[in-house]
Amino acid sequence: MGKSKASPAISKASALWVTAFYCLLGGIWILVSASPVTFWGGTSTGSVMVGKELAIVSITAILLYLFMTLAIREKPHVSAQSVIREISERKDAELALSNAQSRALLQESRDLLLNLVAQVPGIVFQYRLYPDGRSGFPFINEAVQELYGLSPEQVQDDAAAIFAYQHPDDAAGITASIQDSARTLGIWHHEYRIQLPHLGVRWRLGNAKPQKLEDGSILWHGFITDITERKAAQEQIEFLAQHDALTKLPNRLLGKDRMERAMVVSHRLGRKTALLFVDVDHFKRINDSLGQAVGDALLQTLAQRFQGCIRETDTLCRQGADEFLVILPSIEDPETINRVAAQILQKMAILFKVDDLELHPTVSIGISVYPDDGVDFDSLLKRAETAVYHAKESGRNTYRFFADQMNVDADEYLIMLNGLRGALDRQEFVLHYQPQIDLAKNQIIGSEALIRWNHPELGLVAPGRFISIAEDSGLIVEIGEWVLQEACRQAAVWRKAGLKEMVVAVNLSAIQFRRGELLQSVGQALALSGLDPHCLELELTESILIEDTANVLSVVKQLKSLGVKLSLDDFGTGYSSLAYLRRLDLDKLKIDQSFVRDIAGDPNNETLVKAIVQMAQGLGLRTIAEGVEDSATLDVIRRHGCDEVQGFHFAKAMPAEQFARYVSEHVSPAMPPATPGRDGEEQRHRTV
Fold first, then answer.
1. How far apart are CA 17 and CA 23, in angstroms?
2. Per-position DSSP letters for 223-267, written without gaps between them
3. Taking the domains of the chain in order of start, what are their residue ranges?
4. What is the rounded CA–CA span in Å between residue 448 and residue 437?
């Protein structure tokens, strides 16, 4: 059997494979050696890198050729174009699959991010501030609906709807913080309040990082959280750090701070500050015998009562255990200290009821005063505590000053206060009457009723020593009613006894306007006495006019409707106002004796008196000058046209019987002056 001859196709294919094999080896060799290569008799002068690139291209082409040849050999009926198209389609499919996977991955990431944003306890936002001042939220999560009742679309282009909920006190701070962040491109971090219709006032904390855009806009990326509960807890912690947990009063630490601040103010204003150390007497017995729960309840009740004895500007603290501190700042009148201490003792006299138990505790009070007793808190506290020991040694249920002289004043204050409480019942008050003279007629036309206290131990006490105490304690209302009734009764008695018709003037206290039934009291006094209303003149003080003006004007109008006369006392010493003079239906202005005294030798006083008289005449009002003590003063007063006078030049205030004789004996009062002296007893506190 002879050898069979090879097929031309196989031979051709074999030759191609052999050629490709050698080309492949050559390319690999070039790639490995990276040396210059000679092609078709020419020597390449390219760099090693060029040789490598040519080798890579050669290898790639040969591999592609071998792949196509192999494919054609396996599928002789498939052309090279079909193979290329199949490869392209396969690549497109792979690319489409890759894009779909990328989109799915992107969507998954977006969904994850949105879900994360939705779970954040607060608002996640982008806030954009444009150069022209417009602002909006390009992105804000759905939490804005829950917290503000607004949809994201409502604030996308205009942030005004959200800013409308800013707390008025915090709006300026929010704006300033945003502007500062925009200017410096620093982190925006701000705590502020908002007011929501359905939630009330809430606290917010905002944090955002700014980014400046090409158009000049500032874009913040950040979040806002609700910190209301945290702020409440923080405030509670701060409160407990500075307040007593049982009574909720400031503790010693805060009390010291308040005292130091008060001393700074007092130093600047030239005033005093008082520190009262209040110690509950025998409190340990209450705790030991009745239990701590009863003791705690008693301390809480004590705190409430003490609070009612002080001004809004004062501070009540719990020093510890059964000890309290009271800080009285900016004291101008030392009587204020006495009044507060006395009121505390007075409140203690009221029965305490705790858990169906009736208790009668007392307190001892020690008082030190800045700057008299010390210039720092510790020194003043120590001296107030020393004064407490003196109060306890004095029998408890009293108060003592660290300074001896103030203790003397305090003793007198307590004596007066305790005596006043029963003075009316014991009929210890009397009225004296000072004549009032008409200068044109040279006749006695009336009198001013002036109260005196016939004290069983102190004798006849002038009003200047007890009227302020009566006002502090509220007893002035009852005393004032008595003065009104007694003055009307006595004036009616004089008239019935045959004396000519005269006016009796009675002072009214501002306390009577605020607390008393003034209209009822005046009407009752006139009805009981039968006195003609035009014979009663009520003297108002200027301090009345600045308190509840509408009510004062109404009461004054009703008083005038009764037919009584009205005068303004101590004119020029208080809160004089021409507006009040026009609105009040007054009959007379009373020129204070501080202007009348020394008028003959003081041009300034003379000018003031002249101006007051001229103004009163222009308003159709009469004038009366008090405190006329000599003929020189009378001459000046008469020369400037004053209508009436009263003073020691004519007569002192005298009891009713003596006054009746005086009127009968002096048809014309142009007489030698009465017993020499000054009107000091009549100044300021002449009646009530």
1. 10
2. EEEE-HHHHHHHHHHHHHHHB-TTT--B-HHHHHHHHHHHHHHHH
3. 10-78, 120-232, 248-419, 424-682
4. 11
In angstroms, how far apart are the furthest CA atoms of the chain? 191
CB 326 within 8 Å of CB 316: yes
The CATH class that applies to domain 424-682 reads: alpha beta
Structure tokens at 109: 């990431």
Question: Token match 């005294």: residue?
Answer: 597
d(CA 225, CA 391): 57
Token pair listed for 294? 């009863």
User: Which amino acid type is present at position 493?
Assistant: V
Question: What's the CATH fold of domain 120-232?
Answer: Beta-Lactamase (3.30.450)
Which residues contact residue 50 at a Cβ distance below 8 angstroms, ignoring those fewer than 6 apart? 44
Q: Who contacts 685 (Cβ-Cβ below 8 Å, separation ≥6)? A: 462, 463, 464, 467, 468
Digit-coded pLDDT (tens) for 567-577? 988 776 655 55
List Cα–Cα distances, 273 to 134, 254, 686, in angstroms.
54, 16, 30
Distance CA 21, CA 630 (A): 149
**Which stretches of the chain drop beneath a pLDDT of 70?**
1-84, 86-87, 91, 94, 97, 101-102, 104-121, 405-406, 516, 543, 545-549, 572-580, 667-688
DSSP string covering 622-677: EEEEE---SHHHHHHHHHTT--EEESTTT---EEHHHHHHHHHH-SS------SS-
H/E/C letters for each residue in 499-530? CCCCEEEEECCHHHHHHCCHHHHHHHHHHHHC
CB contact at 8 A, 402 and 387: yes
- Residues 512 and 316: their CA atoms lie apart, in Å, by 29
What residues contact 53, with CB distance under 8 A and at least 6 apart?
none
What tokens were used for 372?
């008299």
DSSP-assigned states of every residue in 429-486: EEEEEEEEEETTTTEEEEEEEEEEEEETTTEEE-GGGTHHHHHHHTTHHHHHHHHHHH
What pTM was estimated for this model as a whole? 0.52
Which is nearest to 154 in space by CA: 171, 136, 131? 136
Q: For strands 622-626 and 588-591, give the pairing.
A: parallel
Going by CATH, does the domain composed of 248-419 fall within 3.20.20.70? no
Q: Where is 116: in which H helix or E strand?
A: helix 80-119
Question: 196 pairs with which residues across the strands?
Answer: 200
The per-residue pLDDT for 284 is: 87
